[in-house]
Records
---
Amino acid sequence: MTLRSSSSYSSRAWLWNGTRRAGLGAALALGLGLGCSATPAEQVQMMPPDLGDTSFTGCRAGSGSVMSSASCTRQGTDYQPGKTVNPWPACVSDGNTYVPVNANISTVARITAFETIANLLWECDKVPTPADFAEAKVQLSIANGLQSRLDRREDEHYPVFVNGMGQTLCTDPVQSINQPDRCVGPVRMVPALNAAVMAGASGQEPRVQAARVEGILIWFLYTSVYKEAVTCGRDKLDDCDSSWAYFTGGEARSSAGKGFMRYAKVADAAAADRVYDASLAVRCWRDVDRMLPPGNSTLQNLAYGQLDRALDRALAATVIDRLGYMKRNSGERRAADWAFISITAAALDRAATARNTPLAQTLRKEVQKTDPNSVNIDDMISTLQQLFPCS
């Protein structure tokens, strides 16, 4: 199996360095629990009508800033459901529908929790209250829910970090900080998430804190789709189901989708389709090769490559779409847009560096800015489109 090697520098370091102390303190405070109190229903503010398809769930339609990838030519070895493409044999995915390995997919409940948190904190231009952040923490902390996976999430693009017995060191609070790229969940995502929830629960810049939560959770979903595909090939077959569900929320291709798929569809429906195709490729490979460890490295590498490219484009389109909103917004709304963008765009640094180092440096320079009004939005959009034009 061939995985992308990491670059010597990751722009995500700013997220870790900038939130480490606040995040760890917040984590301790959150461990004590946040109480929910009854509050009057607040008025939900709606954004003006936007460009794009308004048939999707939620209030945000596309900003009109994303160049569609619908005309992109597929790579010659990409799996296409129902079509004969060498070296893909006939398989369970050929009906263009994901067929689960296990009918009970626990990840679906996590994406439902994501949507609940979205409605609490940011959907429909909401200004969340401290009680909303407290309830969001409750949703995060559901048994076997999002928090349980954030606490142990690893980025499979980086070398394994294990002890002499092959056990992960990413769950070791002392050892994990030595490998922040691999141990991305406990080292980077969780401290930043906890800091944002605590700040929001204290009434500090509620829109901005909600956007930080949103960005971190989209980053987590993006990372998780690929992670579960890799462990499907290494540990257990039904992780393929989790990979598919972390993108779709368990929804059909034709639906609006939930979680990351909902965002990708709004930004670039073709990009969302390509991720769905790639999930079918992973399932096809594990249908014809059910061995642990896998026996068909050719299909394995093709499936992982197809999924990786599709995920990168879907996230890039999501970032470009939000940049379009940022361009028209001002004040706290613009600051909130940048809070989301700076997190999700930083998550693309590894993939950007692998594709084009000079362009990745251009993107990184913008991502590291702290003042939203100093960001060259048009330059960022152009750079992302050049880096990730297709899936």
---
Amino acid sequence: MSIVNTLPLESNRQIKINFDGGDLPSDAGLLLIKEFVSKLGVDKLLGKVFKTNDSALFRYHTDQKNLLQMIYMIIAGYFEDDVYTECGTDNEITEANCDDEESYSHNNSNHQTNYTFYNSYTEQCNNKRTKRKQKWKMFLTIIFILLGVCAFGYYEFNKMIPVGYSNEELEGLRYTVVVEKLKESGFTNVKEKEIQDLTISREDEEKMVTDVKLGWMTFFDETTRYPSNLRVTVVYHTVETYSPPLMSKEIKNMNYEDVISSFEDAGFINIKTEVEYDIVTGWISEDGEVKSVTIDGDKKFDSSDEYRLDTEVIVTYHTLRKNKPKD
């Protein structure tokens, strides 16, 4: 069984962590925070986006390092440079108060005055510290939110890819071709949007792309870069559809000429008839009575169904056997 004696940090290879039980300073925990920041790439991100109006040609401590140093200082609780001095002042007052206690037997009134002053000062100092800590906690929260937003933005920026085509090159192609091209470019969230608004006379334009939307953008060129997971919508058009003028259950016992007239008035242009020469006496079915109607092969249909106007409609009706033409 092997044991890992030392573990070098990614943020600084010269610093190594071991498990020999040695003593640690109180600020050693900042090394883990520094390693976490390095893992997220925040230090590299700040080096790219954080700049000041410093006209110097060279600085040993860069803007990015100074900002990180201040963030680490806040995390460690060193909100201001005079923190130790403030504590020292309290100690001095405590010592002064102890001296007053030694002279309490000589001057009780003076002791009470100093004691009251000490309590008042301590309360004011604590209130001041509380407000300052609240202020810095809020500031620290805002800093981490901004760092999170920057890290997310940097992550999204790295996922950006070129479209590879302009919007003009994609428009006019069949939608299946456009979808395939965009997926080959690396986009993973490609959606299709069908608009049924073409008339029969414009059938040659069916399934042709008229718009490609990258998010909200409709104009782009081949070098424009977008996140690979951005929603891409491919808009194409198809021939409009209509509901049949009659429901299948209404057609029974109707005359076939009335049915044909209804479909023609609704705009259907591909109507065919089939004749059943099966009437002998006319007691069961009348001459010209509809036996069935199919739309694109469907025998059952209602007003909720929709079909193109050039869909095949077959009207089958009964007629007298004697009307059957002789071969």
---
Amino acid sequence: MPNIAVVTTTINVPHFLEDYCKDFKIHNHTDVIFIIIGDKKTPDEAKSYCERLAERYEYAVEYYDVTQQRSYLAGFPELDAYLPYNSVQRRNIGMVRAYELGVSSVLTVDDDNYLLEPDLLKYHLAVGEKRTLRSFRTSTGWFNPCQFLTATPNVRYFHRGFPMSERGNSHVSVTESLETGRVVTNVGLWLGDPDVDAWVRMTLPLEAVQWTQEENFTLSPGTWAPFNSQQTTIARELLPAYFLNPQAGRYDDIWGSFIIHRLAEHFGDIVSFGHPIVNHLQKRTLKSLWRDLDDERMGVLLTDEFVRMLRSTEFSAKSYATAYVELADALDEQIKRLAGLGESQAEFLLEYVRGMRMWSTTMQRIGNSDGLRRLPSSDRPRVSAVSPRSVEERPCSFQSGQS
């Protein structure tokens, strides 16, 4: 079975994946499968393009158009009912498929992330291994990874999802040490368009131009940082606890990252930040920024309360999957006891918990299966899984931003 699955969703022909294939071949990464989830707006050409990628580079490539998704999700009716179309959260389907296949880890990528340095998988393949990394602990319990990303103009800015209540704190003490632990998540960062809040994009155009650190770092227990899903590798055992919940809007990955921090602390594991660095090329219209702002609103308002509940939850679970169920139960109880929440805010949080329970049910359907549940032949995505051999080495356009 493949060692790592690259999962993406797109409404475009995924040309960016060709440079990924070239890079993986050059660096002898052969145990890889690509899982691409289309959507209603994805052109028909995407399917034939993925077939050509599979044939040309001899990787397993599974492309799911909307029809194939419906057939696949017949086995997961709760997930089928919960996920909206025309939504980045449909990449959850790819994560379910990867989990079903038995891969060791899943790399989620956005289709506007282009190679900037060679050997993309070098750092991502650290997931599952024990590493010693520089570790930061702060007096506030929060760390902003964007402090290591120099921007133009040269101003202080924050990663999307960093709590608003902590942004004005100018008296933060930082302690640095070395920490050894098993890496269960690797967060690759980016140059180009930084992942900041919609209101920042509206008021202060930024370009990240330099990553200032040589090696990756981690955070000590009790210190958290928001991270996204645009180039992030998750260990297999975390997948039942990592749901990009559409209820959270553009905080789906942010709140998911806070859950990973809390659960990793419980199990004594670590999250790695830094390499590989990619080039994030994205242009948003003013209309899309207003939509993003609305999708971030409830996350901004409720992050402090959500984090408080996470930090106060204690666990007895022996696995990430069962800890996630314990967390859903604890959140449900705490939300119902909260005073001062408006009705709409309480309903928002309770629906988030319902999504967590749905995800647990979905992953439990897979359980310890061998990953060989089959689609009807007419609905099966094109898969090419052949013995690797050398291919003509074509240079990757590492810094062009184009495939």
